[in-house]
Amino acid sequence: MIYFLIYLLIYPYLFAMKKLKFKGAKGKILLIQTAKIGDYANSTVIFDRLGKFDVLIDEINLAFAKHDSRIEKIFTINDVKRKKASKLGLALELFSRNYESVYVLMPNSLNLFLARCTLAKNIVAVHHYAVSSNFALLALGMKKVPHTLNDLTLLTYLKTLGISELKYEKCLQQPLFIPHENIVKSDKFKIGVSLSAGNKMKTPPKKTWEKIFEIFAKFDCEVYIFGVGEEAALLKNLLAENTDEKRTENPSDRQFCADLTSDDASEIYGDIKNTNDEGAKAQICSENGICSGSNLSSQFCDTYVKKFGENELKIISLIGKIKLEELPFYLSQMQLYASSDTGNYYVADSVHTPTICLMGPCFASEQRGVADSLVISSHLPPVSSVFKTVQGIDASAFFELSEQNLADIEAFVKVRYISYLSREDNFLC
User: What is the CATH number of the domain that holds 314?
Assistant: First the structure.
């Protein structure tokens, strides 16, 4: 209610200023999407259709937006949320841009207030199942696009532009940001994995990943772990038992191998906080070094070899080694990507990498990959949605895999594996 009252108070001033002063170029567009990475990635399905436009986003997505030629000006919501900047100040700044159309894909009270303050002729807002009680007032006069749990978010976003079918593709960056040096140089079949999710409820338990890694180990492949922060602890836990150590001694090649369970490793590489568990070993290569049996070259590359089932699997950690703006590129280098319903999954889908999603407690009817994706849904009814996210519950039961689930995963991997090996440009064939 407070936002609507503030709007009523400042409306006469905004109206007068628009009539007297602001005569900007016609057709200017503002897109308001202040959600995190996954929702931002899915929102890009309308970017090409918009042409040139401004965005109001969460600062985490600056890494993508600043490398997007379609975006003219970027505003972030974070300083306002932290109370380091004025909401009214941001409202006036947006008003000064003289927008003709505003699209509100995340229709919370603040975003609707900011949209109203633009006095744009065409304001369109998503009207979902969990809108606040203030929605009716703040969205008064706006065009509303209904969204239910059975509606794919990509289609809902397109409907804000009057498009009723999925005929546009997601594109997170245009052009794709390419790092100066590609640290992934292997010619093996590469599988990317995110073990965790920002919402801890969406993190599959260890036993689930072990079953999936047993499937991966049946193929001549390498697994690359993506993530930051606690992803390293999850990887350590996954590798805690029966991990094989690879050692090499070749000072001329600047190769250094260390057991991460030893104190010496942290002395050499500077406080590497990995593991004290018996059997957890790693190979660490210095810059210009080449890991034994791998073509991976980077400043630090951690290569683990562990037995899953009857087979060994090479696991390479990229945790903390790539910049966020580089994420789409590196995910595009994978031949397959597996994760739960998390941001990386939707980024991988946006670059057309085949994906496996452990949907767990989330509604696959509402949001899922659309390029080439195997979605593993739980036998339990979903409880968490895009606009009403559940947190803080033990959702491990949602990630239990049936024999059919495992068979589907193996079949999906096999088809992409065979396809990769049969490529004309694959010198292994």
Answer: 3.40.50.2000
